[in-house]
């Protein structure tokens, strides 16, 4: 939109009347007197220092924000925007910015065009039929304003939330030793078994290995018994059994003793028939 | 593991970690053979939270876990430890952040459409550098614009556990209300009357118009309006 | 200023500061009109120190001031916050471990005989350090070689009640695909996978995995184990 057309809209006869009619209530808004001395008569309610006029632009987050400001300043309902009046005030702001040679963002000019268009459509005679179906020319603008206002409010709410650094701070204590410790890698049972299968296959290739059939718990118990005999001394046969383990536990222990004997890992001694049976490990590190 | 010892470990870990810890993360502090159930950890945390009563710090849960933090009540004193610290953010940044939080995933173009102005690249960069937002995908339209979403760090920063805890977004009033107005919009005279009526009502309600309070930011006026 | 409030401020400041604070530094947190004497601050600190009795942290004085620090007693657990998983074990180690499990008690020489290659000392050391194997006795042959067996820790790690829950050697050799076997073996293992999968899910929703922030999270590392 060119400067001329923007001003033409702002200075339309209707607007002139309206402005005149509203003079008493415009006292708090010296900005209305734009064409006079712009610097000294900046809007007081914006508190713009005469030498920092860019604040006008900075104070608003764009044309929607400026429009909302104009509407809210007069406590108007957003659903009931007096487009002509708002357009006039909006154009006055634009004019101030322009006269101060502020670089005017394109969005502001686009909004001026939109306002002018809405106003002209409102002023045109409405078609006699289908009244209810025709959309209010302001509807789209109102929708945008409402949508923007929601998020403007949301941003304010965000600002009110307690926030790290400003309202709260993380608490932490000193740790004397922050050295990174290395944890052992995880092991997948399946991987281990696949590895075993490979090694078995290889072993069979060389014909060295016989597949064991005894329950693995017997093998486990063999180790436990060996450890129990680890002192190299003789232990009573009965002391190696734990009655609490039940019959199965006794069997497992007995089988493990036989395996250990067969494997020549333990020595089983009985002085005479029916006398106590003693066991000892054939070799221990300590005694040798 | 004994409850007191567990409590001590959890307390020390939370204070040592420099970032929030989840129950699984706390659980990982224990070796397989001394594994601690999450329920036990939760009990320890509840006990530690109770221990904070009347103290200068509190134990809270935020999006990425539990953390000890300085209570707001004593923060003004603590804040003097850091004389200059940037804790203010521009409205543009907060509005952009709000749009991403409530409308995610959202493109920069969509943000600009709603705000009515372009979004400075510096704002997006700041938000990304603070790890409050991140690219979560791309919209399948020409140019494949990036879609942004908020992060857990964002929630942590604002002391929130989840997006559900964000302030409720204001409802949009039904735009149908416009329709009856239209019949009246015959000319500017009617409009003017409306303006004056509205303005007059407000004055008589004794609200505080902006120019009287000396508030400089348009933002503040909206606050007045909403508290009304 | 009231003693309790002073205590709270001092506690919060010390926990927020990231470095030790001296009495003058603590004193500087108070404005001129609420000035606090050093003696008062010292009393607050003494009270806070007493409050630490039986907790996971303590308030100590070091050369540059006062600070809260993690107690020695809980450090072993807290230290796991900064732990990292090594990469996976070698095939040789897994074979060795499996042979020890299935053929125990077994000497290193016997393992080498079956595998057809020598077993590196480092492998045996690693397995012993992890406490999965141990010397259970010695074979009565020249050199008295050590006999190795698996430990309870080994069973616990794989969630086995006893070795009998492992497939037999015949089953391992004959069955091409071990999957169905393992389903029978490790009911508990499946459960564990679920827990970790859940942890993994949470993490993937998270914006900032811990390793990116400089802290290695054991939980997440574990997840890779199962996805492998």
Summarize this structure briefly:
Chain A is mainly alpha-helical. Chain A is 48% helix and 5% strand.
Please tell me the overall pLDDT of chain B: 80
Q: Kindly report the oligomeric state of this protein.
A: heterotrimer
Describe the largest sheet of chain B. Answer: 3 strands, antiparallel
Radius of gyration of chain A over all CA atoms, rounded: 47 Å
How many DSSP E strands of chain A?
A: 4
> Secondary-structure element sequence of chain A?
HHHHHHHEHHEHEE
The secondary-structure class of chain A comes to mainly alpha
* Outline type of chain B: elongated
| Distance between the amino and carboxyl termini of chain A | 105 Å
What key attributes describe this structure?
heterotrimer, A: about 290 residues, mainly alpha, three-stranded antiparallel beta sheet, 10 helices, 4 strands, about 50% helix, about 5% strand, rod-shaped, disordered N terminus, B: about 230 residues, two-stranded antiparallel ribbon, 12 helices, 5 strands, about 10% strand, elongated, disordered C terminus
Explain what the structure shows.
The complex is a heterotrimer, with one copy of chain A (288 residues) and two copies of chain B (228 residues). With 288 residues, chain A is mainly α. Chain A has ten helices and four strands; from the N terminus they run αααααααβααβαββ. Chain A has helices spanning 3-10, 13-21, 55-59, 63-73, 83-99, 106-123, 139-160, 189-205, 216-228, 246-262; strands at 181-183, 235-236, 266-270, 277-281. In chain A, strands 2-4-3 form a three-stranded antiparallel beta sheet, covered by helices on one side. The longest helix of chain A has 22 residues, at 139-160. Chain A is rod-shaped. The termini of chain B are far apart. In chain B, helix 1 crosses helix 3. Chain B has twelve helices and five strands. In chain B, strands 3-5-4 form a three-stranded antiparallel beta sheet. A two-stranded antiparallel sheet of chain B has the order 1-2. Chain B has helices at 3-16, 23-27, 38-51, 75-78, 91-103, 108-115, 121-129, 152-157, 178-184, 188-205, 210-213, 218-227, and strands spanning 57-62, 65-70, 106-107, 133-138, 146-150. Chain B has 228 residues and is mainly alpha-helical. The chains are: A mainly alpha (288), B mainly alpha (228). At the A-B interface, helix 2, helix 4, helix 5, helix 6 and helix 7 of A face helix 1, strand 2, helix 5, helix 9 and helix 10 of B.
